[in-house]
Amino acid sequence: MSWVKENCLSFFQLFCIKVLKTGRIPQHLALIMDGNRRFARKVSMACKDGHSRGFDKLSEVLKWCLDLGIPEVTVYAFSIENFKRSQEEVDGLMELASDKFKRLLDEIDQINEWGVRVNVAGRLSILPIDLQALISKAMLATRQNNKLQLNIAYGYTGRDEISRAASHIIDGVKNEELTAEEIDEELISQSLDLGEPELLVRTSGEVRLSDFMLWQVDRTVLYFSNVLWPEFTIWNLLAGIIHFQRHAPPALQDKANTPAQQEFLDKYETRKWQKLEEIVACS
Ligand code: FPP
Ligand code: MG
Prior knowledge:
Elements (H helix, E strand, L loop, with lengths): L10 H10 L8 E4 L3 H7 L4 H22 L3 E8 L7 H20 L1 H7 L1 E6 L7 H13 L6 E9 L1 H17 L10 H7 L7 E4 L18 E4 L9 H14 L11 H24 L1
Parallel strand pairs: 1-2, 1-5, 2-4, 3-4, 5-6
Helix pairs in contact: 2-3, 3-4, 4-6, 6-10
Bound molecules: farnesyl diphosphate and magnesium ion (MG).
């Protein structure tokens, strides 16, 4: 299955999307794709195949998001906690990710046509080295795209993201790029891997955040769906969006950075891309 599944909606479903688009659409959707193993057990398939069906569902959801005009989607694909699962399952998930990133690079023209920019969030260094190289290549190859930003949280937890941002800011102060007075909520937010989602959907009936985007969900509308991720349908997503339209707080204006904050953040961004280029060069 490729990254964006084409022609997966009926005329009636597309009509319903049009109706919903007359109201407010979340500009950033976060997804905790939970329930792959329960789905696998339910239909008597191997756990690995349950995760693979989870990826297929993601490719459908990405097409729905393009149709809905949602410009940013963040998915929780592998948490640092997931390393505690059996070696067989961890290896299976790493293999699945490697296959999918290889496929993305093979189909790069199609991805660029869709305008999908892939951004992997998390602690890249704890992943297998060949997966790090594939991820770096995918991020570099899709960097210029701007229709849909797909953030994949991989080797990620929210607390780890906050502690990495804190140590990076401390380095900035030590290197005299920033003064202590310049550390504020906005700087911390912008030093994180991920921005604030407007709507967060978790499937499978679990009603926890499981260390996902902890800093960012302050104003996020949360929607918990009972269906298992591989069984998630367009109707489940539209129900989440209606929930968002009923409960969304007013959008906030971004606060301007000071010149020093902006320079610090720009340097951080440049270093990030340089690191990815180094990983590719060493592979
Ligand atoms: C949670 O279900 C799902 C995961 C831990 C993995 C999700 C990964 C994918 C959908 C594939 C994504 C791959 C890429 C490259 C983006 P679970 O295993 O916790 O299932 P359970 O709750 O039923 O036990
Ligand atoms: Mg689970």
